Amino acid sequence: MTVTTFILASASPRRLALLAQIGISPESIEPADIDETPAKTELPMPYAERMARQKAEAVAARKPGAVVLAADTVVCCGRRILPKAEDEATARQCLNLLSGRRHRVITAMALAKGQEVRIKSVMTVVRFKRLSKAEIDAYIASREWHGKAGGYAIQGLAAAFIPSINGSYSNVVGLPLTEVKLMLENSSFN
Prior knowledge:
- By secondary structure, this protein is an alpha/beta fold.
- It is 33% helix and 24% strand.
- Strands 1, 2, 3, 4, 5, 6 and 7 form a seven-stranded mixed β-sheet that branches.
């Protein structure tokens, strides 16, 4: 990719590592630092798209002329957006809810330059096996869940909980690589 300045609007080390996996290296990393509270009746996909757009716009406003990639990943059961697990109680609630069920992981990506913003969303369906209390306790003890949407990381110990996914694996990690690469290649921002 040849652009003057390419910025990743994310503090996520997973997103940076995923981009590196496909040979993309941002010139800088600029987290947007916006309020990420969902609106009372906001559905998962519109929420993810709003967050990605606001992150991209916030960073693009600070960095005129730069191409900014922002993303937001949401884990949801039905219409319910699961939180990032910041404490054991939240992680345990998420794991109990996901146990034995399918859920969706939606990542919205926003590519911005100046006032122009392009949005793309990707959804993956993830199936969890039924989890025993011992499995949940062990996972909680691992602390791997900390800061993760839905209280788990597919790329870690939680892989043992997931018999199948339908869609992009890298989307569940935090950035759907095929779609990101296409978005960057097809951008008129370059």
